Amino acid sequence: MNIAIIGYGKMGQEIERVAKERKINVKLSLDIKNNLNGMAITPETMKDVDVCIDFSTPTAVVHNIAAAADCKKNIIVGTTGWYDKLKEIEKIVKEKKIGFLYSPNFSLGMNIFYQILSSTSHIFDQFDCYDIAIHETHHKAKADSPSGTSLTLGQIIFQNIRRKKEFLQETSHKQIKPEQLHVTSTRVGSVVGTHRVLFDSDGDTIELVHTAKNRTGFALGALIAAEWLKGKKGIFTMKDVITSI
Prior knowledge:
Layout: E1 2-6, H1 10-21, E2 25-30, E3 51-54, H2 58-70, E4 74-77, H3 86-96, E5 99-102, H4 108-124, E6 131-138, H5 148-160, E7 166-168, E8 180-187, E9 194-200, E10 205-211, H6 216-229, E11 234-237, H7 238-244
Parallel strand pairs: 1-2, 1-3, 3-4, 4-5, 5-11, 6-8, 7-8
Antiparallel strand pairs: 6-9, 9-10
Helix pairs in contact: 1-6, 2-3, 4-5
């Protein structure tokens, strides 16, 4: 399989390293210096590319998806912070008839964590003595806050715990409402990513924690997703990959 890496930062470089281990050919690597607004994504540069993998920036990703779609190339998107444009992207994907797969987190472990939280939160729905909160920590260069992964964890909680109905994403300077789910963030150093879901009552606290040790798990998940997406058309998420496996 031939891939193009769009966004050649630390994640892009790790994808390139893991791709070589999996005998996947990296035909092209693009970064912000040579791909302003997706201008380097053309039928000529994308020749023989099977799937593009984007880990760029929230401001660049929509241009990159549109350019890849114009080239009739399937694309994996691990960039977060652009989900307010999802309807626009879905329209482009359907019109161009390509395969599009996005996820706030491509880590295989985190996608298993989603399933664990879904089961756990369903149980906690029966016990309203427990309040719930989410806290995440990432490196200081991360562009969005809270993380897309935290928002996905929150959506899982909303689906399963009826008393929680809305996000509180900022620091609270007053008492929060019972229906609010407090999601907080820390940005420091070079932390790859830690996500913590807390269930707290007067008697005890239960925590579910996922800690990424490095970027290898994310890169591996993105490449597995790219292999899965090759030749497909439509809009998918990492959940489709995990459940099919």
